[in-house]
Amino acid sequence: MKIYLVSLGAGLLVGLVYSLLGVRSPAPPIVALIGLAGILLGEQIVPLAKRLADRPELVRYFHEDCAPQILGTAPMEKDRDA
Fold this sequence. Notes:
Blueprint: H1 2-21, H2 29-50, H3 55-71
């Protein structure tokens, strides 16, 4: 239930921002695509900042986790040795 309330709150916040910017909803396609790109990139900021202390881990994270999600490619299957 909590996730639904958070989602509703995020939707209300976006609606408020749209209203302040004078953008009508549903947004024109280019505005919507730019917004979605911002969401995808924004999702990666916190994990990326957490990994800045470990440089080799940062490169691995970007290539294996960020790039597939942002670029829409299939995630690489990670080898799991038990």
